[in-house]
Amino acid sequence: MLIYLIIIITVLISFLCFNDRSLHEKLRFNAFDIKHNRQGWRFFTYAFVHADWIHLFVNMYVLYSFGDIVLQIFGYHFGYQATIYFLVLYVGGILFSTLVDFGKHKENAFYSAVGASGAVSAVVFSSILIYPQGTIYFFFIPFPIPSVVFGILYLVYSAYMSKKGKDNIGHSAHFWGAIFGIVFTIALKPAFATKFIEYIINYF
Questions:
Q1: Which residues are paired to 29 by β-bridges?
Q2: What number of CA atoms fall less than 13 Å from residue 11's CA on the CB side?
Q3: Is pLDDT above 80 for 167?
Q4: What is the spatial distance between Cα 85 and Cα 173, in angstroms, rounded to a whole number?
Q5: Domain boundaries, the chain
Q6: How many CB atoms lie within 10 A of CB 57?
Q7: What digits encode the pLDDT tens for the residues 9-26?
Q8: Reported CATH class of domain 2-203
Q9: pLDDT for res 34
Q10: Whose CA is closest to 10, among 138, 98, 115?
Q11: pTM of the full predicted structure?
Q12: What share of the chain has pLDDT > 70, as a percent?
């Protein structure tokens, strides 16, 4: 239910921003406005705004694909606290994934970024850590992709697009969201890391 709620809210806000450029500009991440105009809400609201329908669909599909696994395993280990921990994982990914860009671009009024990539990346890599044997399907690929392989490709693509820097999508947030997802999940239960290492060793 929580995953669906996040998706619904994100789709609704993104849709409104597709049709209202002023709202899009008010909610997107802009380090200059955060520092000089005290618009701190941008640290969070950018995650509910997307560049286009494809960008929105990819982020929400990946969140749907990996989020349920995280919630289920969190539920098994943490009971009723699982929902709270998942929210901290998601919201923490939103915030943490912007900190480097904030430091880098706080004097650049022209830099902005949108997208839930940082939060989604936190969920993806939390899922990979706690359930490395997982897979993901894409409509145009006739076989499942191992989660670990997808995670690596996800970061390589993000690094490449971040260097291009031409689409206002927060690609660098993917990496820092991943770092937050891994660190937060290990902090919750260090045994997750041990089991992940054991799986990788046995797999290879």
A1: 113
A2: 13
A3: no
A4: 20
A5: 2-203
A6: 12
A7: 999 999 999 999 999 999
A8: mainly alpha
A9: 96
A10: 115
A11: 0.89
A12: 92
Kindly give, in sequence order, each residue whose CB lies less than 8 Å from that of residue 176, ignoring residues fewer than 6 positions away: 96, 97, 98, 99, 100, 118, 121
Query: What CA–CA distance (Å, rounded) separates 176 from 119?
Result: 9
Q: According to the model, what pLDDT value does residue 198 have?
A: 87
- Write down how long the chain is: 204
CA distance 64 to 185: 18
How far CA 203 is from CA of 86, 117, 186, 192, 200, in Å, comes to: 28, 28, 21, 16, 5
Instruction: Report pLDDT for 155.
Output: 76
DSSP line for 50-106:
-SSHHHHHHHHHHHHHHHHHHHHHHHHHHGGGHHHHHHHHHHHHHHHTTHHHHHHHT
Residue with tokens 């990346």: 121
State the residue for tokens 């971040």: 162
For residues 164 and 127, the model is more confident at: 127
User: Residue 141 in contact with residue 82, Cβ under 8 Å?
Assistant: no
> DSSP labels for 118-173?
HHHHHHHHHHHHH-TT-EE--TT-SSPEEHHHHHHHHHHHHHHHHHH--S-B-THH
Paired with 145 in beta bridges are: 136
The set of residues, in sequence order, having a beta carbon less than 8 Å from that of 159 and lying 6+ positions away, is: 171, 175
